Amino acid sequence: MYPLHYEGDIFRPPSEARSLILQATIGCSHNRCTFCAMYKRDRFRERDPEELQREIASAGRLWPHTRRVFLADGNALTLETERLLEIMQSLNEAFPRLERVAVYANPQDLLKKDSAGLAALRDLKLGMIYLGVESGSAALLREIKKGATPEEIARGAGRVKEAGIPLSITVINGLAGHEGSAGHARGSARLLNEIDPEYLGLLSLMIIPGTILHRRVEEGLLTPLGPWEMLREIRLMVEHLDLSSCVFRANHASNYLPLKAVLSRDRESLLTALDGVLEKKAPGMLRDEDHRLL
Q1: Strands (E), 92-166
Q2: Residue 87 predicted with pLDDT over 70
Q3: What is the dihedral of CA 70, 75, 79, 83, to 10 degrees?
Q4: pLDDT tens-digit readout, 172-215
Q5: How far is CA 19 from CA 67, 68, 72, 104, in A?
Q6: pTM for this one?
Q7: Are 160 and 103 in contact (CB under 8 A)?
Q8: pLDDT score, position 2
Q9: In terms of C-beta density within 10 A (0-12 exposed, 13-18 middle, 19 or more buried), how is residue 113 classed?
Q10: Torsion angle in degrees (nearest 10) through CA of 38, 43, 94, 96
Q11: Which architecture does CATH list for 14-280?
Q12: Domain segments of the chain: what residues?
């Protein structure tokens, strides 16, 4: 019998493809973002501690050589620090070769944590926090109901940095449509410069039927960017980035053009490459719409 129990759809970052996934929570505690359809069928709740402990122990017996674990669901970092410390301790005991545990977080989760508690989690091998920032534009964050301001996001991210835990930030290209594209690009760059994350992942907006964002598009309140406009927005954001040593990736299945760089080293060459693509606009350079995926 498979020792792990999963409820609902399971989502993980692309870089956690080889991690053991353990569902510490069900759904997303915020679950109000207008563009997102990921956890709409799930009522948020914590997993029963005894049930999760049994799963960890069983997984440890079956896969003792596990090196990486991802704690699902949408923001398991919302758990109380003491509860997270218990889970992390169990993971270290079950997997002697454990190298890293990773987790999704909402901005609100980080505001509830202090750097000392985060450092204690780091000492038990919490080695990556994935934070969906989506935008640095205050107006856009209100519009998409993110539940945090740029200042609050920066403050929470600062606690992660103080604790010495690597931070992977996600921004969504095209989220503001035509109407707010420039403000989205510049605001995101401004917030990212303040946070100075170790990793930056850029997704391209996909409009999901049934979401509030989809309804806004249907009502003509938001004009989606086309593929080339998406690239112009990326170019504007990259132009304004000034990060110390950030690994940049825009090679998700949603992106029209795969991009990767270390921004402290490659920013100018990335801008040159984007300029070349935007000048040529050659057929076949971009991923076909039918092949874009979440």
Answers
A1: 100-105, 126-134
A2: yes
A3: 0
A4: 999 999 999 999 999 999 999 999 999 999 999 999 999 999 99
A5: 8, 5, 11, 14
A6: 0.95
A7: no
A8: 63
A9: buried
A10: 30
A11: Alpha-Beta Barrel (3.20)
A12: 14-280
